[in-house]
Amino acid sequence: MSIAWSYSSIKTFEQCPKKYYHLKVLKDIKDSGNEATIYGQEVHKACEDYIKDGVEIPEKFAYVRKVVERIAKQEGEKHTEMKMGLKRVGDGYEPCKFLSEDVWWRGIADVVIINGSTAYSIDYKTSKNARYADTKQLDLVAGGLFVHFPQLDTIKSALIFVVSGDVIKKNHYREHMDKYLNTFEDSLDRLDNAEQNAVWNAVTGPLCRFCPVVSCEHNTR
What values do phi and psi take at 178, rounded to 5? Predict the structure, then answer.
């Protein structure tokens, strides 16, 4: 497979190969997002600015203060909005730059705290609750961190839903690194097949009306 992928891109492919084709391969359409995604980006930026530079949280995001204050007090080397790349080398992986020509996977960790052989990996979520929480994103980031930081044995990961206060935790261990990075193996095989055969079939569903590919016959807009 020649296409670099990420958690968000493979989820787009699973949702609809045709949408993926236009956004990630042909790139003739750009998804500008909606109010919810823009709001989420603003929250992430506020949290990043506080932990990285001590910039006060804006009043409209006051509900996240206690969360980021606790994170900021955690001992260790802190990284915010950390971009990682991995390339395949034989049956293994090596770290590379996010935009390297030979990058295989790309991931961004909201907050990473390195403390000896243990790391904390945190991903903020601005959805109303944890009903549709997906820890596969945590798996991928943990796998990437194990490759980039060979000294790590354990990663304590968490999805923090800053609106509801829900926290989904998961511990990751170096001996399972390959398993984490193969989380989407079946979907990647299907993506490889779609690329090789140039077949990007549309999948219909309730989200079609929000899709930016308005030329698709299934788009009700």
Answer: -60, -40
CATH topology for the 33-183 domain: Trna Endonuclease; Chain: A, domain 1 (3.40.1350)
Tokens of 10: 């493979």
CA atoms of 62 and 69, how far apart (whole Å): 11
The reported pTM is 0.92
Q: Which residues of 51-82 are buried (b: 16+ CB within 10 A; e: fewer)?
A: beeeeebeeebeebbebbeebeeeeeebbbeb
pLDDT in tens, 135-176: 999 999 999 999 999 999 999 999 999 888 899 999 999 999
- Contact status, residue 162 vs residue 125, Cβ threshold 8 Å: yes
Q: How far apart are CA 142 and CA 148, in angstroms?
A: 10
Q: What is the pLDDT of residues 46-55, one digit of tens each?
A: 999 999 999 9
